[in-house]
Structures are given as structure tokens and as C-alpha cells.
Amino acid sequence: MVSSIINRSLDDAERLNPTLNSFLSVEREHAAERLDVLSNTSGQLPLHGYPIAVKDNICTNGMRTSCASRILENYRAQYDATAIERLNAAGAVVIGKTNMDEFAMGSSNENSAFGTVKNPWDIERVPGGSSGGSAVAVASGVVRAALGSETGGSVRQPASLCGIVGLKPTYGRISRYGLVAFASSLDNIGIFGQTSADAAKVLSMIAGRDERDATSADVAVPDYESALNDEIKGKTLGVPRALFADGLDNDVRHAVEGTIDRLKEQGAEIVEIELPNARYGIAVYYIIATAEASSNLARYDGVRYGFRAEDADELRQMYFKTREEGFGSEVKRRIMLGTYVLSSGYYDAYYSKAQKVRALVKQDYQKALAKCDAIITPTSPTTAFRIGERSDDPLAMYLSDIYTVSANLAGVPAISVPCGLSSERLPIGLQFIGDFWSEGTLLNLANTVETIVPIEEKPAIFAE
Ligand code: GLN
């Protein structure tokens, strides 16, 4: 039974990959070893034989962990990330590593060094990014749940574009040990699920303090599954209407507003709130994230990890050539931007100002969340766009995260849940943002949306 579920998952991953390109590796050997271990385990573990897909920037012992970059193309992790260690202990089986934007920089998956991932609802469209491979592994029915990572929306935005649930927990809820660093003060491991119940199940297993990550919090981990079906009657939901503005697609607006009405019918109280500094979110994010990235990515120098350029006459040239040949253009753009905003003369004008505005963004959330249990916004201003449509326009691409980045800046948790289909039959996602450690409330709200606006349609490409 257990082995047939895992084998079906492995087969589906391999069969669909030529079309969707969501996996960078399908880990048959590893899965066989795990099945062996599980068959010798007495009793039933909480995730016994549960197949899971993992983004390729999360370390998995002995498996390739490439971050979809040439610079780590043949790198194999020497240890498991804490989240993986905990999943293994719970009986889950990693069936493959998923494609992504290089070093988690992007919103469409077009920045992977190993080809674009296709959206299973329409293979001419992007799945979102940067965790597009994990989103597609779940949306196409290969697995029920997958791990991704979030720095500014990389789980919620692809979840929205692929019609599944995507959770970014509170900063510090899940250990980052073994997550390859992009922008450490913003990075989180996030979870994709076909439903909120799948995400709750996985979160319950991997959350909690880890002494190997000093930023992981010592906050008790509740049983997230048990609160899923609570009544939402009496809950207060805040709507920042000023953000439902320019650039928001009409179908998206309609689906989100319709769901707000349905939540009201269920007994939720809807209040208007304001997040006055949210409009600076993208600007602040692209200063802080690039600054931290320029520092974190300095470690890829051809000496410590992965790829080293050939034919260099001396050391400095070797560094230059390795980074020139190893990194893709978006990663280079970010390193340059980050180095610039940190350089003397510009540090005060950009970086330190961005930190101040980040504090204001956080304050906005504190004020708004004192008045409500969660905030509702669209997850993404549009549905899945066409492959190539925004790839020459970095600013248009950056705007994909307009609704998601501020939760990362503030460190608060947020979830995306499907709330309808557009006139082109593409999924639309709604986002709930909550106070620190309110993942249980967010999962409960997402579960309610799944019940009151169910989406019966499946993607065009779905394993069954
Ligand atoms: N799309 C955003 C970026 O390119 C967010 C990425 C992420 O969350 N990892 O930085």
C-alpha cells in the first residue's frame, strides 16, 4: 500500500516531466531506501509513506541541491535541512527535487538555468515563482504537498497561479537550517498543499524551535489539523480597500469580493482597514532583499562550492569567470543592485532608509491586526501570464508580488487559497494575512473558503 502510493507518485513525476518540467530530479533510489526503512518501522508514523516534493534550494542529504543554478549544477548536499529531517522522522518520503527560479529570484520560473516550468492549467503560461516546480508538482496531482521557500511571495504567488494552497508561516516558525540563503531576514520555508488540510498536516510536523537556527522561535507548536473546521462566525476580517486599485485584474477583483461576501454570510464581520505604507513594499523589498543577496551569494566563488570556471590564469580572474559563467542574468542584476545600495554614499540614501520604512510596514500590520483576526487581499494582481510576456521587463515582473512582499517584510504569516476561476478558466487566489503565530487561524479561514467556494475543475494536465 505504502509502496504503491510512492511508486505512483514517482511514475507520475517522470511521466509528466517532459511536459511540465517541474522536477529537476526524481529520486527513485532514495525513495526505495526510505520505503525499506519504513517497512521495518513498527507502527504507523504520522506521515507514513506520504510522498513529498522539495524545492531544489532545500538541502537533502546525498541528493542534488542546485538552486536551479549552473553554479551549483552538480552540488550534492551533505546533510538534510531540519524540515527534511523532521519530515523523514514523521515517515514522509521525498520523491524529487523541484525546479525554481535561480536562487529563488523571480516570479515566473523563467529564471531557472534548467528551463521554464509550465502551468498545468495552460502550458503556454507560467506557474508563478520562484517555487513554481513545487507548486506544479502539487497542482498536477503528483504529490499532495510540497515544500517551497518564500522571501517575498514565492510560495503564495505560484499557489495562486496554480490553484492550490500556499502557506508562508511566521518568520521563525520553521527552521531555516538547510535552506540555501537568499535574503536571510526575509527567507522562510513554506508549504504547498492541494488543500489546507495537507498544509496543516505538514506544518504540524516541521514547525518549532531548532537550535541550529538561532532565528527559529521557541513557541509551542499546536496541532494545526484540529482547528481546521472551526466556525468562523464572529471572526473579524480586515479589508484594505485602498490596495484593490490600479493593476488589479477585474476577474481577480470580482472573485475576491465575491468570496468576502460569502465569508460575511458565514458570520464573519468585515471591517475596512488601512495599510498606508504597503505601497512602498516592492521598493523596500528590492533594496533589502538584494542587499542581503549580494552578501549571501558572495560564497559562490569557485572555491567553496560547485562550479569553477576553467582557463583562469590567476585567482581574481577565476572568481570573475566563475561568477560570470555560473550565475544567470537576474541573479547578477540582484547582486549588482545589492552591492550598490550597500556601498558607501548610497547606504544611507537607500539601505538604511529602506530599513526604516520596513519598520513602518510592520507597524501598519500591528495596528491593523489589533482590529481584526486576519486581513484579506488578492494574492496576485493577475492570473497566470504567458511565458515570455514579462521576461524582458523586470519591473513588471517585480509587481507580481505587490500583495505578498509586505508580509515577509513584517514577518507575519500569510496563506493563499483558491477562490475562483477567471473567464479564461485560470485559477485565482485570495490571501489571508494574520498576526504572528496565527497559522491555525489562517488555515481555518482557508479551509472555510475551500468549503464555501469549492473549485471542481481540475487542471488540463492532472495525474489520476
Ligand atoms: N518574486 C520575488 C523575488 O523575485 C520573491 C521571491 C521569493 O519569495 N523567493 O524576489
Can you offer a commentary on this structure?
This protein is globular. It has 14 helices and eleven strands. α8 packs across α10. The mean pLDDT is 96. It has 464 residues and is α/β, with parallel strands linked by helices. It starts with a helix and ends in a 12-residue tail after the last helix. The chain has an eleven-stranded mixed beta sheet with strand order 1-3-2-4-6-5-10-11-9-7-8, sandwiched between helices. 56% of the residues are buried. The protein has one domain: Amidase signature (AS) enzymes. It binds glutamine. The site of glutamine has 14 residues, from β4.
Mean pLDDT: 96
CATH superfamily: Amidase signature (AS) domain
Largest sheet report: 11 strands, mixed
The number of distinct helices, counting runs of at least 4 residues, comes to: 14
Tell me the series of helices and strands, N- to C-terminal: HEHEHEHEHEEHEHEHHHHEHHEEH
CATH fold description = Amidase signature (AS) enzymes
What attributes does this structure have?
eleven-stranded mixed β-sheet; Amidase signature (AS) enzymes; alpha/beta; 11 strands; 464 residues; binds glutamine
Map the helices and strands.
Blueprint: H1 2-20, E1 23-26, H2 28-39, E2 50-55, H3 82-89, E3 92-98, H4 132-139, E4 145-150, H5 156-162, E5 165-168, E6 188-193, H6 196-206, E7 236-239, H7 250-265, E8 269-272, H8 281-296, H9 315-326, H10 329-342, H11 347-369, E9 374-378, H12 394-398, H13 405-410, E10 414-421, E11 427-434, H14 439-452
Parallel strand pairs: 2-3, 2-4, 7-8, 7-9
Antiparallel strand pairs: 1-3, 4-6, 5-6, 5-10, 9-11, 10-11
Helix pairs in contact: 6-14, 8-10, 8-11
The structure holds glutamine.
Residues 104-107, 130, 149-154, 182, 289, 401 line the site of glutamine (GLN).
